[in-house]
Design a protein that fits this description.
The chain is mostly helical. It is built from ten helices and no strands. The chain has two domains: about 60 residues, no CATH class; about 70 residues, no CATH class.
Length: about 160
């Protein structure tokens, strides 16, 4: 409810991922991000109170947590675009075909938190969140073999973001 009017959020996981991609795009202005956030997250008619609509949409994307400074300072463990194939594979190991799924964003995140043991994505997350000095010799060798550009997250550039 926004100012006494019910507005439905589009909670489909693909829609939310596309919205997050836009919110993280350094090339977009704040106004452009706000327009995308409201346009993607709300069905017509758009809420009149855009400030409250944005707050509630971001709150949904953060799973009912208020946005905090820790959100900016926490190291990222997964990039939905760089890791897309690994995410897809991890879900297939759980018996979920993302191409055919209509799950909500929250359901998607719940599955993502429960990665199958030993899948490549769970190994990538472990490696990314563990200081290299604390990894075993075998893990460091695996990383070197796979390649740092695959294992570690990189900043996406304009052309890659548009793709």
């Amino acid at each position: 409810m926004i100012d006494g009017v019910e507005h439905m959020l589009d909670s489909h996981f693909r829609n939310c991922l596309l919205t997050l991609q836009a919110l993280l795009d350094d090339e977009l202005t704040g106004d452009e991000k706000a327009d995308i956030l409201i346009g993607n997250m709300y069905n017509e008619p758009r809420p009149v109170n855009t400030g409250e609509a944005m707050r509630l949409a971001v709150n949904y994307l953060l799973q009912n947590r208020e946005h905090s400074k820790e959100d900016h300072n926490s190291p990222a463990a997964i990039d939905f675009w760089q890791d897309g194939q690994f995410i897809y594979d991890a879900f297939l190991l759980k018996g979920i075909n993302l191409d055919k799924s209509d799950m909500t964003y929250w359901e998607f995140l719940a599955h993502l938190r429960e990665l199958p043991e030993g899948c490549m994505l769970s190994r990538l997350v472990h490696w990314r969140l563990t200081p290299r000095s604390k990894l075993t010799k075998e893990e460091r060798a695996q990383i070197d073999k796979i390649g740092h550009d695959v294992v570690y997250l990189k900043k996406r550039h304009d052309a890659e973001q548009a793709a």
